[in-house]
From TrEMBL:
Top-level taxon in the UniProt lineage: Bacteria
Assigned protein family: Belongs to the bacterial diacylglycerol kinase family.
UniProt keyword annotation of tRNA processing present: no
Listed cofactors: Mg(2+)
Membrane topology value: Multi-pass membrane protein
Entry protein name: Diacylglycerol kinase (ATP)
Transmembrane segments: 30-48, 54-74, 95-118
A Gene Ontology biological process term: phospholipid biosynthetic process
Amino-acid biosynthesis is among the record's keywords: no
Residues of the active site: E68 (proton acceptor)
Amino acid sequence: MKNSFLGKRIRGGGYAIKGAWLLLKHEPSIQVQFVISILVCIAGWYFGISRSEWMFQFLAIGLVMSTEGLNTALEAMADFVHPDFHSKIGHIKDVAAGAVFIAAIIAVIIAGFIYFPYLSS
């Protein structure tokens, strides 16, 4: 079973869980985003948001945290490949951070669409 299709998928899932745990344990940006996601979920429960609003909220949370995880991995790889400052590595890191920024802005916009009606009524 170890080298079967199912065995490889189970092992791969274990690596994914380990990676998510490492992100939460060691990366301050993911830790902050995780706390924000908990607070937003508490707000969703408090305001009684709809099922579709929950779906959009979880998609936004997943988008931001996944993008941040990819950014973290890319930065670690870039630092491993070229530990000293290099302008092209800096550019790559800036672009990856920009992707996280875009995801975060979209998440804030989604949160506005979800929560503004509850706050204004």
